TrEMBL record:
InterPro entries: LytR/CpsA/Psr_C, LytR/CpsA/Psr_CW_biosynth, LytR_CpsA_psr. Gene3D superfamilies: 3.30.70.2390, LCP protein. Residues 287-371 form the LytR/CpsA/Psr regulator C-terminal domain. PANTHER family: POLYISOPRENYL-TEICHOIC ACID--PEPTIDOGLYCAN TEICHOIC ACID TRANSFERASE TAGU (PTHR33392). This is LytR family transcriptional regulator.
Length: 373
C-alpha cells in the first residue's frame, strides 16, 4: 500500500483519554454497570490538530449496559459513506472534510449507534505525555530503521530490537513504524494494542496517579473534545479502578484492495453486521490469541493473518512459554466453543482443550506447534 508517510499514530493519548472518560462515568471495566456509552477517540496527523487534518488512528470505546467493554480499531483507509459526500471515501478523510463532527457522524453511520463523546489528539500530546509518564516499557519486536526526509518534520526511525523504555520521541517512532511487518497494517495495529496495554498498566500505578492533574492538564491543552477541562482533571484520580485485561480489543475485519489506483480497506459486511449486533446486544466477541510454540520466525503472525483473512479478529500475537511443542492445539473458554471449532477447521487443528486459566485475558488461544509450518 502506498500511503503518505507523514501520518502519526497517537495511541498513548487514546489510552489515557478512554481511561479518564471511563473513570469519569464511574465505570469499572469488569462490572458493566451503568448506561451504555460509546466514545470516539481519534488522532490527527498534525501538531495542532487542525480541522483540515486527516484522522490517523480511529477507535471506538463502548462500555456499560451490562456489556463487556470493547475498544475497536477502525482502519484509517476503511472505505465508507461519509455524510454529504457523493462517493465512498476513506474514513480518515472525514475529519479533513468536516472536522470532529463529520467524523463522529461517519462512525455513527458505520456502526448504527449514537456517539456520546469524542476526543481528538495530536502528536505533540503523545510526546509530552509519554515523557510526563517517565517513558513506557515495551518489547520492540525487530530492529526498526526507516527514514523519510520529506516528512514534516523529517522522520528518522532507528530503534533496536528488545525490551526497552521509550521516551516520547521514540514512542512516536515505534507507533509510526509499519514497513517491517509481514502485514504492515495488521502488524502496526497489534503493536499499537501492545503499547496501549503497557500505557494503561503504567497509568494505573500508584506513583502515577498523584501526577493526574499535571498529566490531564498537559493532555487537555493538545486535544479537541466535548468534555470540559475541569471534568478531565477530576478523572485521573479514578483511573486505578480500570481492569486492563477485561477490555476486549478488536479490529474491524476486512481486506485491502486497489480501486482506481487508490488503496482502500474494504470492510467485510458480514463481520460488520455481526459486530453491530454485538455492540447493541451487549455480548462481545471473544479475544483470540495466537502463540508461536515451534520457534519458527514469524509463525504466529503467519497464522494470525490466515485467521484475519477469514474475518476472525486476532487480539494478541506472541510466543508461547514452550517453543518446542510438537502438535498444535486450541484452548477455549466454554462459552466460545463454537468459535474455537471454526478456527480449528480453518487451521486444520484437531486438538481442542477447555481453557481454565483465569490469568490469561484470551477467550481462545491458538498455539502453533511443529506440525504447522
Amino acid at each position: 500500500m502506498f500511503i503518505k508517510k507523514k501520518k502519526i499514530i497517537l495511541i498513548l493519548l487514546v489510552v489515557v483519554s478512554f481511561l479518564a472518560i471511563a473513570s469519569y462515568f464511574n465505570i469499572v471495566a469488569s462490572s458493566g454497570f451503568g448506561e451504555k456509552k460509546h466514545i470516539l477517540i481519534f488522532g490527527v496527523d498534525s501538531s495542532e490538530g487542525k480541522t483540515n487534518s486527516r484522522s490517523d488512528t480511529i477507535m471506538l470505546f463502548s462500555y456499560g449496559g451490562g456489556m463487556k467493554p470493547m475498544l475497536i480499531s477502525i482502519p484509517r483507509d476503511a472505505r465508507v459513506q461519509i455524510p454529504g459526500r457523493q462517493n465512498l471515501d476513506k474514513i480518515n478523510h472525514a475529519h479533513a472534510y468536516g472536522g470532529s463532527e463529520l467524523l463522529v457522524e461517519s462512525v455513527e453511520n458505520l456502526f448504527k449507534i449514537k456517539i456520546d463523546h469524542y476526543i481528538g489528539v495530536n502528536y505533540k500530546a503523545v510526546e509530552e505525555m509519554v515523557d510526563a509518564l517517565g517513558g513506557i516499557e515495551v518489547e520492540v519486536p525487530m530492529d526498526m530503521k526507516y527514514s523519510d526526509p520529506y516528512a514534516d518534520p523529517p522522520l528518522h526511525i532507528d530503534l533496536k530490537k528488545g525490551l526497552q523504555v521509550l521516551d516520547g520521541k521514540s514512542a512516536l517512532h515505534f507507533l509510526r513504524f509499519r514497513k517491517g511487518y509481514t502485514n504492515q497494517d495488521l502488524g502496526r495495529i497489534h503493536a499499537q494494542q501492545d503499547f496501549a496495554k503497557a500505557v494503561i498498566e503504567k497509568v494505573s500505578t500508584p506513583s502515577i496517579i498523584f501526577k493526574a492533574p499535571k498529566l490531564i492538564g498537559t493532555f487537555y491543552s493538545n486535544i479537541n473534545t466535548d468534555l470540559s477541562k475541569m471534568e478531565m482533571v477530576g478523572l485521573g484520580f479514578k483511573v486505578m479502578g480500570m481492569k486492563v485485561d477485561d477490555i476486549n480489543r478488536l479490529t474491524l475485519a476486512g481486506s485491502n484492495k486497489y480501486i482506481n489506483g487508490i488503496s482502500y480497506f474494504i470492510i467485510n459486511e458480514e463481520a460488520l453486521s455481526e459486530l453491530q449486533k454485538e455492540i447493541s446486544s451487549g455480548k462481545t466477541l471473544g479475544k483470540v490469541e495466537v502463540l508461536n510454540g515451534n520457534g519458527g520466525v514469524g509463525i504466529a503472525t503467519k497464522y494470525a493473518e490466515i485467521l484475519e483473512n477469514k474475518d476472525i479478529v486476532v487480539g494478541t500475537i506472541g510466543n508461547h512459554s514452550n517453543m518446542n511443542i510438537e502438535k498444535s492445539f486450541i484452548e477455549y473458554r466454554s462459552s466460545y466453543k463454537k468459535e474455537a471449532k471454526r478456527i480449528a477447521k480453518i487451521l486444520s487443528i484437531s486438538n481442542l482443550i477447555l481453557l481454565e486459566d483465569e490469568k490469561t485475558e484470551a477467550d481462545i488461544r491458538v498455539i502453533i506447534g511443529k506440525d504447522l509450518e
